[in-house]
Design brief:
alpha/beta; Endonuclease, Chain A; 15-stranded mixed beta sheet; two-stranded parallel sheet; 37% helix; 23% strand; globular; phosphatidyltransferase activity; PLD-like_dom; PLipase_D/transphosphatidylase
C-alpha cells in the first residue's frame, strides 16, 4: 500500500515564513490584529490626528523627522490641546533628525503641558553615542491604537504624491495585540531620555482586545556594528523567498553579501524587483554610494525601477505573495547597523495583495533601469561614486 502524497494548504507558505522569523528573532507573532494601510499624507495625517483627538487618557508620540509646515503646526497644536485637557502626552524627538524643528512649536507644546524629550542630544562627553539615532516612528493613543511606518511630520509629506512637493509614503494603523509591541518600542527609547518616568501599566489582566484576523510580528531593533535584528530579518526573509521578492526603499546602500544574496535569488528564478527614488531623490550622496552595486544587481537579473513622480520614501518588502514587511527601516547600512528601528511582518495573503496593488500602481510612475545604459554612465559620476563609497557605512 503506497502512502498518500501529503497535501499542502494555501497557508503553508505563510506558516513557514512565520515560524522561520519567530525562531530567527526569538519573538512570537500575535493574532487578532486589524491593519489599515495608509498612502501619503492625505490619508496618513487625518487618521493620526483623528485618533489623537479621540484619545481619552494618554498619547505617546516618537518621531525622527519633525520639521516645518502647516502639518507640523497642526500636530503641535493638537497635542498641546490634548495635554491641556488633562491627558498624559509624551513626545520624543530625535535630536538629530528633528534638529531643524521650529523652536516655537516645542515651546507651544511644553506650555500646554506636553512632556517633550530629546533622544540623545549632542554631548561632548558621549560623542560616540551621537551616531546612533532612533529612527522609529510610533504613535500610540490610549494604549489601544498605534501607527508606524515611514512618515515624518513636515510639509514634504502633505498631499497625495501628485508632484515633487508631495512625497510618496506608506504608513500603517494597528489595532489588537500587536499594539503592545509598538508601545514597547516607544518606551524603549523614552526610558533612556526620561529615566525618571518609568511606565506604570494597569496589570489587572486587561489584554489587548481581538480586533481582526491579521497575524503580525513586531520587531524593534537597536543598533550595533555587527548588524541588528532588522538586518537579520531582511536577510532571513530574502533567503526564504521562492517566487517573488519586491522591495521599495528610499535609501539603498547595501554590502557585498547582500548584493550576492539578491543576485542568487534572481538566478534561482525568484522575481526580484527593487523600487527606488528617481530624479527627485532628496539625498544624492547616498545614491552615489549605492550606484556601484547596481551594475552587479542588473547583471545578476535583479530589476531596478526608479519612481519618477516625486520623492519616494516608503519602506516595504513583499515576499512570495504571503509576507509583507513594513516600518521605519530603510534598506541601507544605517538602518541595519546604527539606528533604532521598528518594523512589522504581516503574514496574510489578502494584505499582501493589497500592498502589491499599491506597488504595481507605483511602477506605473516609474522607469526601469537597464544594464547597458547604466554601464555607460558618465565618467564624472563614477569618480563621485568612488569617493562617496568611503562613507558607505554611515549611510
Amino acid at each position: 500500500m503506497t502512502q498518500a502524497e501529503p497535501t499542502h494548504s494555501s497557508s503553508d507558505g505563510i506558516a513557514n515564513h512565520r515560524c522561520y522569523l519567530e525562531k530567527l528573532l526569538g519573538i512570537p507573532s500575535t493574532e487578532g490584529n486589524d491593519l489599515t494601510f495608509l498612502r501619503n499624507g492625505c490619508e496618513i495625517f487625518p487618521a493620526m490626528l483623528q485618533d489623537i483627538e479621540e484619545a481619552k487618557h494618554s498619547i505617546e508620540f516618537l518621531t525622527f523627522v519633525y520639521w516645518k509646515g502647516d502639518i507640523a503646526t497642526e500636530f503641535a497644536t493638537t497635542l498641546g490641546k490634548k495635554a491641556k485637557q488633562g491627558l498624559v502626552v509624551r513626545v520624543l524627538l530625535d535630536s538629530f533628525g528633528a534638529s531643524s524643528m521650529d523652536d516655537g512649536l516645542v515651546e507651544t507644546m511644553i506650555e500646554e503641558g506636553v512632556d517633550v524629550r530629546w533622544f540623545r542630544p549632542f554631548s561632548s562627553m558621549k560623542i560616540w553615542r551621537y551616531d546612533n539615532r532612533t529612527h522609529r516612528k510610533v504613535l500610540v493613543c490610549d494604549n489601544r491604537v498605534a501607527y508606524t511606518g515611514g512618515v515624518g511630520i513636515a510639509k514634504e509629506w502633505e498631499g497625495n504624491a501628485r508632484n515633487p512637493d508631495e512625497w510618496r509614503e506608506t504608513h500603517v494603523r494597528v489595532e489588537g495585540p500587536a499594539v503592545d509591541g509598538l508601545i514597547g518600542s516607544f518606551w524603549d527609547n523614552w526610558i533612556e531620555a526620561a529615566p525618571g518616568d518609568f511606565p506604570k501599566f494597569d496589570t489587572n489582566g486587561d489584554d489587548q482586545p481581538q480586533k481582526g484576523e491579521d497575524q503580525i510580528l513586531v520587531l524593534r531593533s537597536i543598533s550595533r556594528d555587527t548588524g541588528s535584528d532588522v538586518a537579520n530579518m531582511m536577510r532571513g526573509i530574502i533567503g526564504q523567498a521562492r517566487k517573488t521578492l519586491w522591495i521599495a526603499t528610499p535609501y539603498f546602500v547595501i554590502d557585498e553579501p547582500m548584493v550576492d544574496l539578491l543576485c542568487e535569488k534572481a538566478k534561482e528564478g525568484v522575481e526580484v524587483k527593487i523600487l527606488l527614488p528617481g530624479p527627485h531623490l532628496d539625498r544624492r550622496f547616498e545614491w552615489y554610494a549605492a550606484a556601484k552595486t547596481f551594475e552587479s544587481l542588473l547583471e545578476g537579473g535583479v530589476e531596478i525601477h526608479r519612481y519618477d513622480q516625486t520623492m519616494m520614501h516608503q519602506k516595504l518588502m513583499l515576499v512570495d505573495g504571503e509576507t509583507s514587511i513594513i516600518g521605519s527601516a530603510n534598506f541601507n547600512q544605517r538602518s541595519q547597523r546604527r539606528d533604532a528601528e521598528i518594523v512589522i511582518a504581516v503574514f496574510s495573503k489578502s494584505r499582501h495583495e493589497e500592498l502589491k496593488g499599491h506597488f504595481e500602481e507605483d511602477l506605473k510612475h516609474a522607469h526601469q533601469e537597464n544594464e547597458g545604459s547604466w554601464a555607460h554612465r558618465p565618467w564624472w559620476k563614477r569618480i563621485t561614486e568612488r569617493f562617496v563609497r568611503a562613507f558607505k557605512s554611515q549611510l
